[in-house]
Amino acid sequence: MKKHDKLLGMDRPISRRDLLHGAGLLAAGSLLPGQVLAESLSAGEKGSLAGMGYPPARTGMRGNHPGSFDIAHPLAREGRTDWGVAQEPDADIYDLVVVGAGISGLSAAYYYREAHPEARILLLDNHDDFGGHAKRNEMQAGGRTLIGYGGSQSLEGPSEYSTLVLKLLRDLGIDTTRFETAYDQGFLQRNQLTAGIFFDRENWGVDRVVPFDMGTFGTYLPIAPSPLSAAEAVARMPISEAAQAQLLRVLTIKDDQMGDISDKERWQYLSSTSYRDYITEKIGVSEEEVFAVLQDLSLDNTVGIEAAPASFGMNYSGLPGFGATGLPDDHWEEPYIYHFPDGNAGVARMLVRSLIPAVAPGSTMDDIVMARFDYSKLDQQDSRVRLRLESTAVKVEQSGGKNPAGPVEVGYVRHGQTHRVQARSCVLACYHSIIPFLCPQLPGSQRKALARQVKAPILYTNVALRNWQAFKSLGIGAAVMPGGYHTLAMLDFPVSLGGYEFSGGPDEPVIVHMERFVHRNNEGLNVAEQRRLGRHELFTTSFESIERSVRSQLAGMLSGGGFDPAGDIEAITVNRWAHGYSLGYNRIFDQVYSDWDDERHPHVQARKPFGRISIANCDAAASAWLPSAIEQAHRAVSELS
Predict the structure, then answer these.
(1) Greater pLDDT, 574 or 403
(2) Domain span at residue 270?
């Protein structure tokens, strides 16, 4: 091992490689019959196997963990159809089989049971935990259990939710007003923590933190004011004087630069023009260093500024330059505070507990936070609802085709063995892109529409620190990292709920959340093409490489505050989502119709029912919003009634 790696702490025995590349338990589990595996999971709750037996407590590579795609990839990439002789573990026919146990699949089961209280329902999921992208991470630091989110983050903008979604949340026991006190909205300001921008030595020639918000965090974190003016902040950035002058203009411009475009057409221009082209054409940016600083700060758009619409970049991601549009800056944003300590895994857990009460005690949004789920209860023979993990569907076939003459047959592979079950109805709440291979009966035009859906590759990395003194010393609580492997690092959201307490001070442990949206910049590629290349990168990058990047970035950013990566990092969990955000429509590349449910949209064509098979998931709405997952589940179930 190189000396530099030792300084970073790559040799330290922390919670990072107990399941190196995720293979340990999966390999062991494949040798165990179902009941023995269930007993091992239950035993894990007693503590001796906590890191192995209890999925939320597993560190290392999570999300689309190794093993979760070992069957799906040969199915979709190689066209494999022969999975061996199938066993039939469940003799009786199910009323409903749901493929995919994310928010949409769980909601589908919920709505079906609501309509048919006596129904027998089976949910299948290829991962070792339920929730889909709504993933719970538990980590150990300083003798405490820290709870974080590994995917779907928050209940964003609940005031805009439909009556349908609000009713489901209310029926589950989720009162969004509870977050108004659970989320410590004064935490960052009380601790005098602002946002920053970190320039690293590898890309910029120096490690330097500038305590100034470029706009990225001010839209959703109640940060403390920056101690620097825009001019003072730009003057500290390691870029040329010419680039500094142009960047300062973008940050401070207030004069209308769109006089050549009518007011009616300005939003159309902004939504169909990239942010890079906008600041080039309307603000006069030409220095490559300015583009490099801003390149990946559109974040949730999952592409760089040359492929992100200017309207999205400025109004959602908070990128600077809106002052040049001549438009009123009067849009209101709901506080971004509706967050369980484990993100929307809290919603997934409440859905599972509602469907299978034996899995955990309690009935409220408070007691769900600390509830220790008994995973052995997920798949019990005497339960009307069963959830079967590590089960990858490989074939879904409707007897009689589009005009059903019998049940839906569902084949799946679990622990190396092929199984087959039958159901009166089936909801496919899995990724759209896998459905053409699962269900080749579908019409060719529908399979083509399904294949259009290319989800965004995303890394959500959680790092457990023994304290956050370095953040306090530097006066920052979050930072963007232009050119860095991760483009964002922030102290976790300060939420205390249901007996779980967020870090009480800088001497206490905390989770640092880091994000990377994998794509390719400035190669003339559309969004789907960038995502495919990014997915390949994710699957070919080792945990060790990601860990090294995490340690290097945090060391460079926080060393001025006394941070020691070898001693201060106690655990690392990398949530790898090769299939993350659903692909929506980008007006730079796509035709978008005024009615979102217009039949000409591919997502509408893709979700059509086939016999007793219906299709849910966020993909069916071309939207990565949690309410979309719930609404599509309701639609899918309604089609089966």
Answers:
(1) 574
(2) 253-334
